[in-house]
Design a protein that fits this description.
With 109 residues, this protein is mainly α. It has five helices and three strands, in the order βααββααα.
Length: 109
């Protein structure tokens, strides 16, 4: 959801992004619901419940309420650009496109 920068994502899409090698069957839907609910509860318990939103079947983070190094890097923040070490979510194959874009941004700054 951070990668989406505030754009919504359906649960099945979020599941596929996190668990590329697993099928989104009924058992995994239930397990993923537990994970999402746990995230909501943890954020609420720590006073950050409004950061995570679920609307119309999609979940998202509210980037206006969140300080993420990705957001700062993409905005050209010098400290974030200098802190980038050339790796972005390397365990996920889908992140390679974003990583290429981040490299381009970081090299331009």
């Amino acid at each position: 959801m951070i990668d989406r920068q505030g754009a919504g994502v359906k649960r099945a899409e979020a599941f596929a992004a996190l668990y590329e090698d697993k099928q989104y069957d009924r058992k995994m839907q239930k397990q993923f619901n537990v994970i999402v609910n746990s995230l909501k509860v943890t954020l609420e318990e720590n006073g950050a419940g409004e950061v995570f939103e679920i609307r119309s079947g999609e979940q998202r983070v509210n980037p206006a309420l969140l300080d993420a190094d990705l957001f700062r890097l993409l905005d050209g923040d010098a400290e974030a650009v200098n802190a980038y070490r050339g790796e972005y979510m390397s365990t996920y194959s889908w992140a390679s496109l974003r990583e290429a874009f981040i490299e381009k941004v970081a090299n331009q700054s």
